[in-house]
Structure formats: C-alpha cells, structure tokens
C-alpha cells in the first residue's frame, strides 16, 4: 500500500486515550475524518500492552488502507510490518531501513535543524519532522522550530516535511502555507469531543488553503 504523505498525521497519546477501547474508537474517528498517517506513541514499558494495541491499530489501519507508524520502537514496527518514527536518540534511520525494507514509511525527528534533515534523507528517511512549531501541551519541553524553517527546507530537502507541536485549527494554515506537507497533531485532535469532525477540519486545510 502506498501511503499519502500529505495531510493530517494523527498521533495517539495514552493520557487522552487510556484504554484500548478509547484508543481504537478515537483512531477510527481520526481515520474516518481523513487522517493519512496514524502514529502509535506510547511511552509505557509494558511490552504486552504495546504489542496488543499496536496490533489492533495495525488491523484498523489496514481496514482503512492507511499506514500505521510506531514511535521509537523498531522491534515492534518490524513485528507488525508497519512504519516507524525515530527521534534523534532512537537509533539510526539506515538500520531501520535495512530491517523494514524499501516500502516502509520511516520518519525522523529533525527539531529545527536542516543538517539533521539532510542526514535523515541520505540515510533513507521517507519524511522529516520539524517542531515544535508552537507551545505543545503534550510535550511542553520540546524545543521550538520557526515557521520560516519550512520555506528554507523546501529548497534543500526533497522529502515531505511534517510539522509538529501545538498545531491547531487556528495556526496550522500558516505552517502549511510555509511548506509543510503534513501536520502532526495530538492534543487538538484527540482531546476533541468530535474527533472525526476535527480531523475533517484539519484535512480540509490542505484542500482549501487560506
Ligand atoms: C511526526 C513526529 N515528529 C516528531 C516526533 C517526536 O519524536 P521523538 O523525537 O522521538 O520524541 P517522542 O515522540 O518520542 O517524545 C514524533 N513522535 N512524531
Ligand atoms: C511528540 C512531539 N514532539 C514535538 S512536539 C510533540 C507533541 C505534539 O503534540 P501536540 O499536538 O499536542 O502539541
């Protein structure tokens, strides 16, 4: 299945979605609302829980022909046969590419650093992620990336660029206009009382740029 690396990138959060039932319901709503990528971001060390939830999300994504991305955990991504997102301390993109194969979607955190993005591209990343664009409730200590970075990146990095951090319906349009192909959202999506409708509203920003 070839993934579309343009649009809304939904990222789960265990505080907002503590049970597997809530997780699956919320993620299905996000997919129904048009999320193109879904990332399972689960920081617990409970391997059994991570495997069970990861497997359930992989099945859900397969049913909707969307791609699941596992945050940080190459072993779990390989076991499920899905994509992977790596932070700078989570292992090398090159090694992940060797293990997961040519078709896997592999993303890399590049903070606000174009040199990191160039290296990720050379190592075989599918997308690069910059942020935090705005103050983030989910990750308050995340370093900040200026919006202008996306304009500079457009000339130098020939991969889809994902924006993350504090993105909501009021501030995402300017990041898309600056050149981000995807916006990755946790709080403004999964804290919504109507996740499907919220996902639709985020997705519409890509078809109706302001
Ligand atoms: C799409 C996307 N971009 C950046 C991150 C941050 O990843 P990382 O640096 O590994 O930090 P944690 O998410 O592990 O706190 C991401 N998860 N997804
Ligand atoms: C994982 C991560 N990395 C930088 S900001 C962030 C959290 C994004 O969550 P939110 O959309 O709630 O700000």
UniProtKB/TrEMBL annotation:
<keyword id="KW-0460">Magnesium</keyword>
<protein>
    <recommendedName>
        <fullName>Thiamine-phosphate synthase</fullName>
        <ecNumber>2.5.1.3</ecNumber>
    </recommendedName>
</protein>
<dbReference type="GO" id="GO:0000287">
    <property type="term" value="F:magnesium ion binding"/>
</dbReference>
<dbReference type="GO" id="GO:0009228">
    <property type="term" value="P:thiamine biosynthetic process"/>
</dbReference>
<dbReference type="InterPro" id="IPR013785">
    <property type="entry name" value="Aldolase_TIM"/>
</dbReference>
<comment type="pathway">
    <text>Cofactor biosynthesis; thiamine diphosphate biosynthesis; thiamine phosphate from 4-amino-2-methyl-5-diphosphomethylpyrimidine and 4-methyl-5-(2-phosphoethyl)-thiazole: step 1/1.</text>
</comment>
<keyword id="KW-0784">Thiamine biosynthesis</keyword>
<dbReference type="GO" id="GO:0009229">
    <property type="term" value="P:thiamine diphosphate biosynthetic process"/>
</dbReference>
<dbReference type="InterPro" id="IPR022998">
    <property type="entry name" value="ThiamineP_synth_TenI"/>
</dbReference>
<dbReference type="InterPro" id="IPR034291">
    <property type="entry name" value="TMP_synthase"/>
</dbReference>
<feature type="binding site">
    <location>
        <position position="72"/>
    </location>
    <ligand>
        <name>Mg(2+)</name>
    </ligand>
</feature>
<feature type="domain" description="Thiamine phosphate synthase/TenI">
    <location>
        <begin position="8"/>
        <end position="189"/>
    </location>
</feature>
<keyword id="KW-0479">Metal-binding</keyword>
<feature type="binding site">
    <location>
        <position position="166"/>
    </location>
    <ligand>
        <name>2-[(2R,5Z)-2-carboxy-4-methylthiazol-5(2H)-ylidene]ethyl phosphate</name>
    </ligand>
</feature>
<feature type="binding site">
    <location>
        <begin position="136"/>
        <end position="138"/>
    </location>
    <ligand>
        <name>2-[(2R,5Z)-2-carboxy-4-methylthiazol-5(2H)-ylidene]ethyl phosphate</name>
    </ligand>
</feature>
<dbReference type="GO" id="GO:0005737">
    <property type="term" value="C:cytoplasm"/>
</dbReference>
<dbReference type="InterPro" id="IPR036206">
    <property type="entry name" value="ThiamineP_synth_sf"/>
</dbReference>
<comment type="similarity">
    <text>Belongs to the thiamine-phosphate synthase family.</text>
</comment>
<feature type="binding site">
    <location>
        <position position="71"/>
    </location>
    <ligand>
        <name>4-amino-2-methyl-5-(diphosphooxymethyl)pyrimidine</name>
    </ligand>
</feature>
<dbReference type="GO" id="GO:0004789">
    <property type="term" value="F:thiamine-phosphate diphosphorylase activity"/>
</dbReference>
<feature type="binding site">
    <location>
        <position position="109"/>
    </location>
    <ligand>
        <name>4-amino-2-methyl-5-(diphosphooxymethyl)pyrimidine</name>
    </ligand>
</feature>
<keyword id="KW-0808">Transferase</keyword>
<feature type="binding site">
    <location>
        <begin position="39"/>
        <end position="43"/>
    </location>
    <ligand>
        <name>4-amino-2-methyl-5-(diphosphooxymethyl)pyrimidine</name>
    </ligand>
</feature>
<feature type="binding site">
    <location>
        <position position="90"/>
    </location>
    <ligand>
        <name>Mg(2+)</name>
    </ligand>
</feature>
<comment type="function">
    <text>Condenses 4-methyl-5-(beta-hydroxyethyl)thiazole monophosphate (THZ-P) and 2-methyl-4-amino-5-hydroxymethyl pyrimidine pyrophosphate (HMP-PP) to form thiamine monophosphate (TMP).</text>
</comment>
<dbReference type="Pfam" id="PF02581">
    <property type="entry name" value="TMP-TENI"/>
</dbReference>
<feature type="binding site">
    <location>
        <position position="139"/>
    </location>
    <ligand>
        <name>4-amino-2-methyl-5-(diphosphooxymethyl)pyrimidine</name>
    </ligand>
</feature>
